[in-house]
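Open question from group meeting: does this chain pack into something compact, or does most of it stay loose? Before anyone orders reagents, we agreed to write out a predicted structure and look at it together. Recording both the input and the output here so the notebook holds the full record.
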Amino acid sequence: MIVKIKRQSEPGSQSYWQTFDYTGPKHVTVSAVLDALNYTDDLFDIDGKPATRIRWECSCMQAMCGGCAMVINGVPALACATFVDELKGDTLVLEPLSKFPVVADLIVDRSIIYEQLTQAKAYLEQVATSDAKQRQHQYSVAKCLKCGLCLEVCPNYRPGGEFFGAVLANESYLIASQSPDPDHPIVKEYKTHFGAGCSKALSCQSVCPMKIETLSSIMKMNRK
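Structure tokens returned:
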């Protein structure tokens, strides 16, 4: 199998493509392919030229951390949850997420997600309240990995813009549904940084690795 990777040595440097030959089994994840390439004594590209180790990020290898989010054959996905034999063709194309600054190769800086949540006051300063009717969706929303796949695929999200994307929609619901304050500032922040900019494409929901029903969060927040 041919593995084509978009690489970048450091932040701000010129990106370039490098191709490798993977000869191992195909019923493995993309992360396993990257490990197989990196664990060789010496790494060479398809032309026989020496190559530096491919830099990518992970913490769990079980689709629980979101660190290995990247664009795989044109689709944003987690490398540890994407199996090679389920992809079309004999070429694996890997790129870093395009809506975040590249740190190196397939590693990006997603700190803007947390900065935007802080800006939107997506946190509780009082003891959370509990409503049995809300718990199932609260549990689902709390699984959000902050991986950035929803932002990568969103047609409305632009880095540095006022629209914060599906991460805020779900986090707003989680905070608003647990806050004892009916006038928690997250409601107005939701309207400004999500409600005013969402076109309901729902591409965010289709790529979410945790299958979070973002539309349900949107409906509940719109009622508020």
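Observations to bring back to the group:
The longest strand covers residues 2-7.
The two ends are 51 Å apart (CA to CA).
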